[in-house]
From TrEMBL:
SUPFAM superfamilies: ATPase domain of HSP90 chaperone/DNA topoisomerase II/histidine kinase, GAF domain-like, PYP-like sensor domain (PAS domain). Keywords: Hydrolase. Residues 14-51 form the PAS domain. PANTHER family: STAGE II SPORULATION PROTEIN E, STAGE II SPORULATION PROTEIN E-RELATED. The keyword Cytoplasm does not apply. This is SpoIIE family protein phosphatase. InterPro entries: Bact_Sigma-Reg, GAF-like_dom_sf, HATPase_C_sf, HATPase_dom, PAS, PAS-like_dom_sf, PAS_4, PPM-type-like_dom_sf.
């Protein structure tokens, strides 16, 4: 920027349109004096015209006033004094008349002196230097666009950022390749943004714009841009000023931080390795890489932890992308633009993750390497969690399967089929269970239950409860009493867990708090089913005509919570009825309407004439078509009633001769059934049991019943509540040997209580 432009341009103090002007001839005499000059130095034109300008200078050694010179002189003021500091700019005067001769030899040409107060000129110079620095030294890129939104001026910072070129006349979106506005809520191009600023006058600040400048065509850059309208003296729009600053590093740092936060939130939401790899790929592509592959060792996939010295050499299995049609293409781990990072946890390598970029040839910067390492570390933790879960899940599943019945008993009273579906997502194996327990008198106990929680704790608790139910059922307890006893056990177990522990003492598993259970005892002789439930879903009953009902049974609280007592209810089930017992995992879950699911269950069960195994499959397919969120157990029971040819019953008076009549009736019935081989033993059993009943029945009637089922069952009913005890009689005792004989001659015997008294029973194996 030359001196003339610096002091005369842009209407500064030495601009001839504003300055004090003196015109000198070739000999240096003043031949022109403007009113502004008179104001500046106090001389009227008459006082200075014709005088040499040198006479006004205080310093005789003042520099010569040659055309183009700029100097600060101390000029005499008319009021006297030491002189006034005056800035002077010298401009040559040319003569438009070609016939007029030029200056004589040794003479200066005519000159015009522009004069101003030196302090005002210095201030203007400082402002001009600042503007010059803004144009040449500012780190912020500046560009001015006209009203046609085309470049009219750029500063040095913008030209350095974009590359040296003439940008005059180009549009804002033409400076970079692939440019796009990435700030949400803004137009997609800079020209649209600037058009809005020009039209409304409202500024736009910190707009983010991405593209590849000519100076760096192989990498995206991000700029923070601000825009404001330039206006003339009357407010008329002159154009738009653009300020840009490269924030690529800051933007990438923020993007990488956001990526790590998303990875922490979205990766590892389940304990399934394949799902975890899928989540990792969704988070990292395409924000960080164009493609990603995840491989783990075979040992990890089995739930084992590889040994540190062999993990890197063992065979690996690809988790992502999956190997099926339509899956994303796997990246080439050896090609250019790939980065492989080991999945390492506590010094053990679990596998590796490979990031790939399609058009990447340059080296990776430290930020990219750090992000890749952090992402791999996060994935390694998630994979190790899934590995631990796989190991525990396998152990829990093995324990669970070992505790559930492998084969259902073949009973005359019922036809059975079941399905058990362990959860395959979420927390894993739960505590659902079912059981079928043969009871005395050809009856059968049916149980389904659900322990709150998942994992080894729930499976172990389920095993303890299943064993307890079997023991209590074999005691021939009524369903409500059985649940009461079971509730006491669960409550005691919960209290023991809550008891204070000594320092260092390991806490037991917390599973088992809150258990639902339904227990039913079906009698094939009477066709009745006595049921009690503790917070468990109602069973479904399908009548022989296909009608499906969910009978309202009294509901006690879940086991282990205490509260209301349990109650039993009796259902009459005609032959051929179907009873469906199930846990809530079959009908409940996220996004599933309970009433709708029960309706679907009723519709499927309405086809009750199908084989039970097929009907089980139909129920599961209709209610659980996808992955199960919770364990689900289903037990289908088709009831039967023992016919008249299988049951014989006699009412006996309270008479000492009742035992004889009972022996005779039993012997005749056995011969009618073709069981002659069992007559002698049965007479002994009947005689002993009836005699004891008459002796302790206190005058109430006694009843004898024989049931020919898979065994021969002999039952004696009385009104007493005292159970006989087996004892060894001494040599001189006259009695006490009857029950010992019964125990020695039968398979098993026992006592069960009814509302009217008790039943003593004994079973014998049928002849082959």
């Amino acid at each position: 920027m030359n001196g003339t432009a610096g002091y005369g341009g842009l209407h500064g103090p030495l601009d001839v349109s504003r300055a004090a002007v003196a015109v000198l001839d070739g000999e240096g005499r003043v031949v022109g004096w403007s009113p502004a000059a008179a104001d500046l130095l106090g001389y009227t034109p008459a006082e200075v015209l014709g005088r040499g300008f040198d006479s006004l200078a205080v310093d005789p050694a003042a520099p010569p006033l040659t055309p183009g010179a700029r100097a600060v002189l101390r000029l005499r003021h008319r009021d006297g004094g030491p002189g006034r500091r005056t800035a002077v700019a010298v401009h040559p005067l040319t003569c438009a008349d070609e016939d007029r001769p030029g200056p004589a030899a040794g003479q200066q040409p005519a000159r015009l002196l522009a004069m101003a107060d030196a302090d005002a000129a210095d201030h203007w110079d400082a402002l001009q230097s600042m503007l010059h620095g803004l144009a040449t030294q500012s780190p912020i890129g500046l560009a001015i666009y006209g009203t046609d939104l085309r470049v009219v001026w750029t500063n040095a910072a913008l030209e350095k950022e974009m590359g040296p070129a003439d940008y005059s006349g180009i549009g804002p979106d033409d400076m970079v390749a692939g440019g796009a506005v990435i700030s949400p809520g803004m137009p997609g191009t800079l020209e649209e943004v600037m058009a809005r600023v020009l039209a409304t006058g409202g500024p736009v600040t910190d707009l983010h714009y991405k593209g590849r400048p000519p100076s760096a065509p192989d990498r995206d850059h991000v700029w923070s841009c601000s825009y404001y309208r330039l206006e003339g003296p009357g407010g008329a729009p002159l154009g738009v000023c653009e300020e840009t600053f490269d924030i690529t590093d800051r933007y990438l740092a923020q993007q990488r931080l956001d990526l790590l936060v998303r990875a922490a939130r979205r990766v590892g939401t389940t304990l399934d390795m394949g799902r975890t790899a899928h989540e990792f790929a969704n988070v990292t592509t395409p924000e960080f890489a164009d493609a990603v592959t995840v491989d783990v060792t075979e040992a990890v996939l089995r739930g084992e932890r590889p040994r540190p010295d062999t993990a890197a050499d063992t065979a690996s299995v690809r988790l992502w992308p999956p190997e099926h049609p339509g899956a994303p293409a796997a990246a080439d781990p050896s090609g250019p633009g790939t980065l492989t990072v080991p999945l390492r946890i506590e010094g053990t390598e679990l596998g590796r993750v490979t990031f790939a970029w399609r058009q990447r040839t340059g080296p990776f910067d430290p930020g990219e390497l750090a992000v890749a390492g952090e992402l791999a570390a996060r994935l390694a933790v998630c994979v190790d969690n899934a590995r631990r879960y796989t190991r525990e899940h396998a152990a829990a599943l093995l324990l669970q399967r070992s505790l559930l019945p492998r084969l259902l008993p073949q009973l005359s009273a019922v036809e059975l089929a079941y399905r058990y579906l362990p959860a395959d997502i979420g927390a894993g194996v739960g505590g659902d269970w079912f059981d079928v327990i043969p009871l005395s008198g050809a009856r059968v106990g049916l149980v389904v239950g659900d322990v709150v929680g998942h994992g080894l704790s729930a499976a172990a608790t389920m095993g303890r409860l299943r064993t307890s139910v079997r023991v209590l059922a074999r005691m021939d307890l009524a369903p409500d009493e059985l649940l009461t006893r079971l509730d006491d056990l669960v409550t005691q177990d919960t209290e023991e867990r809550a008891a204070p522990r000594t320092a260092g003492e390991e806490l037991p598993d917390a599973g088992g708090f809150g258990v639902t259970c339904l227990y039913a005892a079906y009698d094939p002789v009477s066709g009745t089913c006595t049921t009690a439930r503790a917070g468990h879903p109602l069973p479904a009953v399908v009548h022989p005509d296909g009608t499906v009902t969910f009978p309202e049974l009294p509901s006690g609280p879940p086991l282990g919570l205490g509260g209301l007592p349990f109650e039993s209810a009796e259902l009459t089930l005609p032959p051929g009825s179907l009873l469906a017992l199930f846990t809530n995992g079959l009908i409940q879950g996220r996004g599933r309407d309970l009433d709708e699911q029960l309706g679907v269950l009723g519709t499927v069960l309405g086809r009750h004439d199908r084989p039970l195994d097929d009907l089980c499959d139909d129920v599961v397919e209709a209610l659980l078509p996808g992955p199960a969120e919770d364990d689900a157990a289903l037990l289908l029971v088709r009831t039967r009633v023992l016919g008249r040819r299988q049951v014989a019953s006699w009412d006996l008076d309270d008479d000492p001769r009742a035992a004889g009549r009972a022996r005779a009736a039993a012997a005749a019935q056995l011969r009618d059934w073709g069981l002659d081989e069992l007559v002698f033993t049965t007479e002994l059993v009947v005689s002993e049991l009836v005699t004891n009943a008459v002796r302790y029945a206190s005058g109430a009637p006694v009843r004898l019943r024989l049931i020919r089922d898979q065994t021969l069952i002999c039952e004696v009913f009385d009104s007493g509540h005292t159970s006989p005890h087996l004892r060894h009689a001494a040599g001189d005792d006259e009695g006490g040997r009857g029950l010992f004989i019964v125990a020695q001659t039968t398979q098993q015997w026992g006592t069960r209580y009814t509302g009217a008294g008790k039943v003593i029973w004994a079973e014998q194996a049928l002849p082959r």
